[in-house]
Design goal:
Layout lengths: L4 H13 L7 E6 L4 H13 L3 E6 L12 H9 L2 E4 L9 H8 L3 E4 L5 H7 L4 H15 L4 E5 L5 E5 L6 E3 L7 E4 L4 E4 L7 E6 L13 E6 L2 E7 L2 H12 L6 E7 L10 H4 L6 E6 L13 E6 L3 E4 L2 E5 L2 E2 L2
Parallel strand pairs: 1-2, 1-3, 3-4, 4-8
Antiparallel strand pairs: 5-6, 5-16, 6-10, 7-9, 9-13, 10-11, 11-12, 13-14, 14-15, 16-17, 17-18
């Protein structure tokens, strides 16, 4: 019987990406929308000889909402954690505590079988090399400017901030996002100023037919307008508190197998895109804590770091 592409992708995640070894303690955390992915990762981990458990949780309210306390304990006791969930566990205290306890963690927020079967069946060695080049080009720089044909023009400081390369290959304690392929960092709080025009997708918007404009002053989203989803975004930010409007992240996509689908998990990894996020940034070296983290995808961006071109109209220059 021909092996399904979903199981092939699960074996890539287990073997190539996290390098699961025989007798390791593996925990797979999934909710109903992602349960088929969780089962595939469970089966692939068992095939690798790991002592594996699958835990189903109720969907969380937001990206960054904490899982139940028993799940936190299971994550902290594991050597490897996979989290295919409809809302991201990346920016949670539970994930940070598990990383500090020594776990290798892969979060897969909003993953679908289609995304898993396509964007995870990629050449992760090539993605790793490309991602590291982008991270190296940003590291040590002081000021970034991002523009797009849709009208984005924003600048902010990155001085002193560490640039992370999410290559998808994780052999030491830490966290990766699967499918992987981005270099990212937290802008210095309070320094962002300008206009962001989100024309790819954000949150549950799907592929945007009309853009969302976000005015940023002193590192904070002050005005949000445009697409009908803008009202939903405002309501979600307001429910999470004022820190949800913090300009939290710059990311640059490096996965050549990723395609624009309206799912942030995949869209933010597309080679030649950039994304800017709002809310919690503590997982990437910032100081803002919020039960909210949302990325907005920018198409055909031009990115300068201290005047050097990183991206030119969506074409990687490093």
């Amino acid at each position: 019987m021909r092996e399904s592409s979903l199981m092939r992708a699960a074996r890539v995640a287990v073997g190539q990406c996290l390098g699961v070894r025989r007798s390791e303690q593996v925990v797979v955390i999934a909710d109903a929308p992602c349960l088929s992915i969780g089962r595939a990762l469970f089966e692939a981990s068992v095939e690798a000889g790991a002592d594996t458990q699958l835990i189903e949780i109720l969907p969380r309210a937001e990206n960054g909402s904490e899982p139940p306390p028993p799940v936190l304990a299971a994550m902290a006791a594991a050597q490897v954690v996979f989290a295919p969930t409809s809302k991201s566990l990346t920016h949670t205290e539970a994930r940070r505590a598990a990383s500090e306890a020594g776990a290798r963690i892969a979060t897969l927020p909003g993953i679908t079988e289609d995304i898993m079967s396509r964007a995870l069946l990629a050449d992760y060695e090539a993605i790793a090399e490309r991602t590291q080049r982008v991270a190296n080009a940003l590291q040590g720089k002081r000021t970034v400017r991002v523009t797009t044909p849709a009208g984005t023009d924003i600048s902010f400081s990155i001085e002193g901030r560490k640039v992370s390369a999410d290559t998808g290959i994780l052999r030491n304690p830490g966290v990766t996002n699967l499918p992987a392929g981005e270099a990212y960092l937290a802008p210095v709080e309070g320094t962002g100023r300008g206009l962001i025009v989100i024309d790819g997708c954000i949150g549950g918007s799907g592929v945007l037919k009309e853009p969302i404009e976000v005015v940023v002053e002193a590192g904070t989203a002050t005005i949000i307008r445009g697409n009908v989803y803008a009202k939903t975004l405002i309501a979600r930010m307001d429910a999470a508190g004022p820190e949800a409007r913090n300009l939290a992240e710059l990311g640059i996509g490096t996965n050549d197998a990723a395609r624009l689908t309206g799912h942030v998990l995949e869209d933010e990894k597309i080679l030649g895109t950039a994304h800017l996020a709002f809310g919690d940034n503590r997982s990437m070296g910032g100081i803002v804590r919020a039960p909210f983290h949302q990325d907005g995808i920018l198409l055909r961006p031009t990115v300068w770091a201290d005047g050097s071109l990183i991206l030119d109209n969506g074409v990687l220059m490093v």
